[in-house]
Each structure stands twice: as structure tokens, then as C-alpha cells.
Design brief:
mainly alpha; 2 domains; 91 residues; single chain; elongated
């Protein structure tokens, strides 16, 4: 980490980053051989159960739910409007 403090310009910072990435790449490529024995993602996908997309049951009932919600909003609007009319009439 002390190397980072020695960097003075943006170009030097970029060069320092490349050096660090190359070090990590070499370390990754020289990983122990037992890592090659791990199963691949493709073999895991083919051996497991298939994922299916199932739509929720609520989607089939969207129209009635929407109608009820709009009815409640309309009723609230009407009651609010009428309460304002009554307050104006009292003044």
C-alpha cells in the first residue's frame, strides 16, 4: 500500500493500477490445481430442476380489484366534496 502514496500523477496512478491487475491475473492463473476439479455452471444447470415463470393469481383478478379501488376513491372524493359544500353553506 505504500506504493500508492508514491504515485504523483494520474498517469502514474493508471500505470500502478495496471501493475496491480497484472499481479492479480498472474496469481489467479497460478491457482492450485484442485480448482479445476470444481463442477462448471453448465453442468449444474442441466442437472437441477428447471425454473418456470408462474404469474401470480392476483393478475387474473386485476380488473375487479381495480374497479373496487376506483370505487372507493370516487366515494371518498364525493364525501370530501360534499363536506366542503356543507361547510361553505354554514358560513
Amino acid at each position: 500500500m505504500n506504493e500508492l502514496h508514491e504515485v504523483m500523477s494520474w498517469e502514474e496512478l493508471g500505470q500502478w493500477c495496471w501493475v496491480q491487475m497484472l499481479r492479480l491475473k498472474r496469481a489467479w492463473q497460478s491457482a492450485p490445481s484442485f480448482c479445476g476439479e470444481l463442477p462448471s455452471a453448465e453442468s449444474e444447470e442441466s442437472s437441477g430442476p428447471q425454473i418456470q415463470q408462474i404469474m401470480p393469481r392476483v393478475n387474473r383478478q386485476a380488473a375487479p380489484i381495480l374497479a373496487i379501488a376506483l370505487g372507493i376513491l370516487a366515494l371518498g372524493f364525493i364525501l370530501l366534496y360534499r363536506s366542503n359544500d356543507e361547510q361553505r353553506g354554514r358560513r
